[in-house]
Amino acid sequence: MLGPVILAASRSDKMRRIVSAAPGTKQVVARFIAGETVDDVVPIVSELSGRGLEVTLDVVGEDITTVEQSYAARDAYLELIGRLKELGLGARAEMSVKLSMFGQSLENGHELALANVRPVVAAAAEIGTTVTLDAEDHTTLDSMFAIHEELRKDFPQTGCVIQAYLFRTEDDARRLAANGSRVRIVKGAYKEPESVAIQDKPEIDKAYVRIMKILMDGEGYPMIGSHDPRLISIAQELARRAGRKLDEYEFQMLYGIRSEEQNRLAAEGHRMRVYTAYGTDWYGYFMRRLAEKPANLLFFVRSILTKG
């Protein structure tokens, strides 16, 4: 299986240098990364919004090593929120954040990440939008869920992400569905051991469906993060059975992937949100996109061969 190999490479400085220097990398990265700066991404938000799509924005760069970098991450999101406010785009664009980027893995990281993310969540609320806490590897999740619970005391619209391949996730989904949380479900994109995660793809899909049903039957707001046509169809049926209206759940897909399907779902009246990443430290995010789907890797290899 190539996926675990690629995920291991996502943490390798040597592979980072090799991939960054490859002739075709820039072309492929542009498929998944909307740009490097706020100025690059704002026109894309406007364009997507004009097509009836909503957006969640991710400033990439979770592999930080200093407190100063965690402050810079906070400030990058505050700058983004300021620009969205100027352009009146708050209602169409939320933010997705990785707490590792806010210092979660550093000394006293839980407290540091909470202190850094709180002003971002507050600023988002002021312009009529919200923040979703992305899930990372399993060792970070207890801290992420605790920060999510703390933030919801003042900002109940704060969302979080759960990953279908983890054994713990059905229990997490029941708890979150019962307390009315906004929850994005994804399959999972980190290299996890057999002791904590399902390894077989068909079994991950089955878990995904079970968790979707928990969320649809619950009191919260499900966000279905998938490009899989079969899972999308199942989500629609589960929503219908649960009596949910079209504005009581949403679909989410990555920027640059299945754009026609994004437009189709939006045209049918579904909330369709495009996960749009930008920034200069794109390597880890990019490698996880390659690991998720073999077609992405083949596209990358073909581009390198074409440009080489």
Automatic annotation (TrEMBL):
Its cofactor is FAD. It comes from Streptomyces nymphaeiformis. InterPro entries: FAD-linked_oxidoreductase-like, PRODH_bac_arc, Proline_DH_dom, Proline_oxidase. Keywords: FAD, Flavoprotein, Nucleotide-binding, Oxidoreductase, Proline metabolism. Its EC number is 1.5.5.2. It comes from the Bacteria. Pathway: Amino-acid degradation; L-proline degradation into L-glutamate; L-glutamate from L-proline: step 1/2. One of its GO terms (biological process) is L-proline catabolic process to L-glutamate. It is an enzyme of class 1 (oxidoreductase). Pfam families: Pro_dh. This is proline dehydrogenase. FAD binds at Q163, K187, G188, A189, K201, S226, H227. Binds 1 FAD per subunit. It catalyses: L-proline + a quinone = (S)-1-pyrroline-5-carboxylate + a quinol + H(+). GO terms for molecular function: nucleotide binding; proline dehydrogenase activity. Residues 46-298 form the Proline dehydrogenase domain. Substrate binds at K98, R288, R289.
